[in-house]
Amino acid sequence: MLSSTLEKPVQYLKGVGPQRARRLQRLEVSTVGELLYHFPRDWQDRQPTLDFSLPTANGLVVARGRVTRALSLRAGPRLGLLKATINTGSGSIEAVWFKHLSRRYDVFATQQKEIVPGADLWIVGRAEASLAGIKEVHVEEYYKLEYPRWALHVGRLTPVYALTEGLNQRLMRELVDSALAHAGEIPELLPRAVLERRKLLAAPQAIKGIHFPGSQAELEAARGRLAYEELFLLELAWTLKRRQTRGFHKGFSYDIKRRLLTPFKAAMGFEFTSAQKRVINEIFSDMQKPYPMTRLLQGDVGSGKTVVALSAMLLAAENGYQSAFMVPTEILADQHLATMRRLLRGLPVRVERLTSAVPKKEREKILSAVRSGEVDMLIGTHALLESDVRWPRLKLAVIDEQHRFGVRQRATLRQTPSVDLLVMTATPIPRTLALALYGDLDISTLDELPPGRRPAQTLHVPEEEALLELKREVAAGRQGFIVYPIIEESSRLDLQAAKAEYERLRQGPLAGLRTTLIHGAMPGGQKNKIMSEFSQGLWDVLVATPVIEVGIDVPNATVMAIQNADRFGLSSLHQLRGRVGRGSEPSRCFLIADPKTPEARRRLDILVSSHDGFRIGEEDLKLRGPGELLGTAQHGELSLKVADLIKDRELLACAREDAERALSTDPTLSSPENRRLRQRLIDLYQQRWHWIDLA
Ligand code: ADP
Ligand code: MG
User: Fold this and answer.
1) Which of 75, 220, 279, 692 is deepest in the core (most CB within 10 A)?
2) Is pLDDT of 414 > 70?
């Protein structure tokens, strides 16, 4: 096959030398084809502005006309300006160019030649009131009518690209336009049947249309086609993955012996909720199937996921198999160790914990006990994924708070494909989205809280009031949290602020209380020490960063005050307040915030009025989009540039259906028509996720 122009380096295009090629490389553009797939980040409507007295939608003024007068002036010691009057046919406007003056050359040399009476121009700029009160246009771009490529830049829906130093919009548009001369070579990935069924644009039209759409409708059609393509590829990958898993024979089976399960249930101290029973049944029935389990367990904070997971781990232990339980933080690993040991007291089950904070000697001991099979359950952070952890009989892997991990880590824990996998999350998301994100998973939902559980009453109050209530609770023998919004635990500035606040509280409003601080940058051992002291009741108040967001369980803590609550996402706030209300006493969560926008106020209202994690998750999705909610890393792994999992829900459903259909007629995509599709899937997903096997 002749190699296509699209695979040639960008330098093949006129106007691109080694330097520009290096700059484009920073945008991950090194070939002509990649330039075509560098989609605009926005489009500006640059039709000529009709009425200059009205503000335009995007703040831009666009005009075409003839220069009737031009002069250049000095506006200040360093600032020069050039003024021109332009007659548009329906009136005249004052256009102004500003530039920093240079000692070495005349900054207006070109303009003075081009912007002369009689010249026909397009200008693009912003309308400002001049000192004299007359409206003038501060020009940002201009094109002479005799310039042959002006129609790329003005008088149309004009693309705006992500740039990097040394590149500008004008250059990008012209380079993309040159590359588009080869758009005819863009291969069609989508099967003809799909193109027809969904009435999609052909690939070259879509690429042309996304860069230089002739109309808003054309832009939508182009975007829709490209979004569909991404979603179709994603769904093909998931469908293949699912089929592959189902076709795999794990080669062992479970017997429900109840040797451990029954005494565990008897000693647990409470009854399973009916949701827990249902979900445990779903999990057990998965585990007894001949192919490996891949199940997502969604359940709101406090819905009791831990004992569900523990039941599955006990089923494994009853059958002589090992299980791994992976959590995102050391604190959580420690806490789960304590909880599980307590719940399993008296049973012949050995539970250990492995994190990077475990001292070397102890680590060696644990590792050798895992290797010899003496350890039944190993709890840990991603330290579990290290290569010196060897399991002779690992059959079940549980991942808690899975949204904190990436797809890749999930795949790594399932070292051998026969391991049953249970992933758990307290950030429930709508089903359609869950399917797109975890398309290879079956989904179980814990939609019921244990009886007697009263969610924390949430109030938006001033700080003094929150602290007063906190002190009142402490006087009654209970404990509380004060949380500071550190988004980036490693950010030194945020950390300093939290420390300063801690000092202020300790010496001021909370003087006399036993108050301590915990934050993510502390060494693991120290964090654990503080956490365990707090659970033992040695501290009244824990000032914390969101390290406590996930999983911490201290029933005696009944108050939480969240400072600058408007700086957190809804789902994080919901998780945070789930740290209180875990005991029998009523609990409260105080949101301390001074929301500046109606949207910020609305978000706080949602929390005050709702305790439904699903609803909150959905609101969060609407407000912030899936990337934010799920962690950009995870979202990024899906390779979606155009598609939006929220806005394109319907397209997603179509893509899913079409993927199923395509694979049921051609399970390995080896027909000539599907050859390119197959290659694209391998390029996109096989290497990145070690996912699909298209042997
Ligand atoms: P999450 O789903 O947030 O991980 P946990 O598993 O930590 O929730 O459970 C929260 C608390 O509820 C724990 O203290 C746990 O022991 C308790 N719990 C779990 N299931 C029940 C139940 N069926 N009845 C009463 N308490 C329960
Ligand atoms: Mg939990």
Assistant:
1) 279
2) no
**CATH code for position 274:** 3.40.50.300
In a shared domain, residues 366 and 474: no
- Which pLDDT tens digit goes with each residue over 156-208? 999 999 999 999 999 999 999 999 999 999 999 999 999 999 999 999 999 99
Whether 690 has a pLDDT exceeding 60, the answer reads no
- Ligand 1 pocket, mutate which of 306, 326, 402, 453 (most atoms under 8 A from CB): 306
Q: What is the pLDDT of residue 661?
A: 94
What are the structure tokens assigned to 169, written together?
């919009």
CA of 556 to the centre of ligand 1 (A): 15
Q: How far is the CA of 400 from the centre of ligand 2 (A)?
A: 7
Strands (E), 492-592: 515-518, 541-544, 557-562, 588-591
Q: Is the pLDDT of residue 155 over 70?
A: yes
Pocket, ligand 1, Cβ cutoff 6 A: 270-273, 276, 299, 301-307, 426, 450, 553, 582
State how far the Cα of 681 lies from the Cα of 676, in Å rounded to an integer: 9
Tell me the CA–centroid distance for residue 245 and ligand 2, in Å. 27
**How far from chain centre, in Å, is Cα 637?**
10
In this structure, which ligand is nearest to the CA of 401? Answer: 2
**Within this chain, do residues 421 and 462 fall inside the same structural domain, yes or no?**
no
Which band of pLDDT confidence, cut at 50, 70 and 90, is reported for residue 633?
very low
**Rounded distance between C-alpha atoms, residue 70 and residue 76, angstroms:** 19
pTM of the model: 0.72
Higher pLDDT, 91 or 314: 314
Has residue 544 been placed in a domain?
yes
- Pocket probe for ligand 1: among 276, 307, 327, the residue whose CB has the most ligand atoms within 8 Å is 307
pLDDT at 691 over 50: no
pLDDT, mean over the chain:
87
What's the CA gap between 410 and 132, in Å, rounded? 65
Q: According to the per-residue pLDDT averaged within each range, which of 157-166, 566-575, 608-617 is highest?
A: 157-166
Q: What are the pLDDT digits (tens) for 294-335?
A: 898 998 888 899 999 999 999 999 999 999 999 988 888 988
Q: Which atom of ligand 1 is nearest to the CA of 301?
A: 3
Instruction: Dump strand ranges (E) for 551-648.
Output: 557-562, 588-591
Pairing of strands 79-87, 60-74: antiparallel
What pLDDT shows up at residue 108? 85
Choose which residue among 274, 278, 303, 311 to substitute to test ligand 1 binding: the one with the highest number of ligand atoms within 8 A of its C-beta. 303
Q: Put residue 162 in one of left, alpha, beta given phi > 0 → left and psi -120 to 50 → alpha.
A: beta
Nearest CA to ligand 1 atom 17: 304
The CA 80 to ligand 1 mean position distance, Å, reads 70
The total of structural domains in the chain comes to: 3
Q: Considering the domain boundaries, does residue 464 fall inside one?
A: yes
Nearest ligand (C-alpha, residue 301): 1
Query: Strands, E, within 145-244: which ranges?
Result: 157-160
Tell me: do 381 and 482 sit in the same domain. no
Name the residue range of residue 512's domain.
457-610
Residues, the chain, total?
Answer: 695
Both tokens of 417, joined, read 């494909």
Q: Which ligand is nearest to the Cα of residue 581, counting in written order?
A: 1
Residues above pLDDT 70, as percent of the chain: 90
Q: Are 548 and 399 in the same domain?
A: no
| Cα of 395 from ligand 2 centre, angstroms | 21
Instruction: Determine the distance separating the centroid of ligand 2 and the alpha carbon of 634, expressed in angstroms.
Output: 20
